[in-house]
Amino acid sequence: MQRxxxxxxxxxxxxxxxxxxxxxxxxxNELMTSIRKKIRDHYLSSQNYQCCYCKMTKQEDHxxxxxxxxxxxxxxxxxxxxxxxxxxxxxxxCNRAKWNKDVVEKSSNLSNKYLxxxxxxxxxxxxxxxxxxxxxxxxxxxxxxxxxTINDSIKGSNTFHACNLMRFLQSAFDPNKQFKRDLYMHxxxxxxxxxxxxxxxxxxxxxxxxxVYTAIR
Length: 217
Fold this sequence. Notes:
Order of helices and strands: HHEEHEEHHHH
Number of strands: 4
Number of helices: 7
Shape: elongated
Largest sheet: 2 strands, antiparallel
Helix content: 25-40%
Structural class: alpha+beta
Radius of gyration: 20 Å
Distance between the termini: 45 Å
């Protein structure tokens, strides 16, 4: 835990955690408040102020914008409440969407030792996976993004749904804004001109990606 520059009192407070108390993290005393701030500041810096799930950049550094993310929810796995591999920062929107979803593979042999094999986690793990292997972030306009999965990645798809990354697509296709309406029409035209009855899901994904790239160039 040296990376967080905890004081001796803070380290003692963490070490006194019994691995079972599901309310310990939410304590509002001075020590726990300081611990949370140091954890949030550390991951904001290491993640370059990007959400671990959607990669949206936000320059604010306070708790009104960012949540400390427990990748394995602390309500389900309290033993990993202070495990560095289980911590990251996520935007409020992704955190609320993912909330307490269980992201551990049912076949995993989970104990009090943290899972370090990416295959044991159903979503893109901020520390065990390379995000770009599973999800592509398409950026357009000023600070606007949306997402597509890479090579039909199951982890990418699971993350897309768990964190409601669909919200970015819904925003992109808002018919009240000209650019978004044009983008939607471009994709719609590409689908009508190219898609046939036997078109596979993978081919459909490629068609949509090509249409998007053409529209935003």
